[in-house]
Amino acid sequence: MENVEKKFEIRDLDLYYGNYQALIGVGMDIYANKITALIGPSGCGKSTFLRTLNRMNDLILGVRIDGSVKFDGEDIYSRDHDLISLRRKVGMVFQKPNPFPKSIYENIVYGPRIHGEKDKSRLDFIVEKTLREVALWDEVKDRLHKPALGLSGGQQQRLCIARCLAVEPEVILMDEPTSALDPVATSKIENLLEELVKKYTIVIVTHNMQQAGRVSDYTSFFLSGKVLETDRTDVIFSNPANKKTEEYITGRFG
Predict the structure, then answer these.
(1) Domain extent listing, the chain
(2) Which of 36, 187, 226, 234 could form a disulfide with 218 if both were Cys (CB 3.0 to 4.6 A apart)?
(3) What is the pTM of this model?
(4) Which fold has domain 6-249?
(5) Rounded Cα gap, residues 45 and 214, in angstroms
(6) Which tens digits make up the pLDDT trace of 107-138?
């Protein structure tokens, strides 16, 4: 792999839901200011793995995790790791747009307010800055105090990305962020990723092989809870080392 700063280092990661083992010996690195795509058939562990990176799985009863997940060199599963700080630094965007039933403005300032920001001019600045980052400002600047649920699906998803950016994360986790969107809205999100990766590290779960090929720098192929292969995306798609990877990418199974 090229000499790029490692944002995450994952080693020997096992995850159990009760007696069921969902992740088996997962090991990989995630590089700073790169887009890493997680691909593989449904139920193979992609989304479960994604949620280990900001400890969202902690919210599920009966989950047990072994192994090491280091973020900027620190084990995020150590007892004294600051979970609030982790979730601020590692934000998440879900499959279906999930704006709060509040105004566009209130959706974005929600996070900064939780973290103690009270200054109105500062909040106004954050709203404009993040909406510009997701190329939504010109579309909504005259309706900031109207309900976010009045936006189109694609606009709602960009708003959810803006809401994530408002607390100044370092990493953005995306769980199939375009699967509920039409091709035009999907294209806008993909173009947005190209801009965001200049400032953020992005990990995206996708079922869309073409999307993984278009947007990512690195790709990891998951199968039955294991990572079979991780490499530069151009290598994975043109010359995969594992026969199963080749079969999945070429559509012979999955």
Answers:
(1) 6-249
(2) 36
(3) 0.94
(4) Rossmann fold (3.40.50)
(5) 22
(6) 999 999 998 999 999 999 999 999 999 999 99
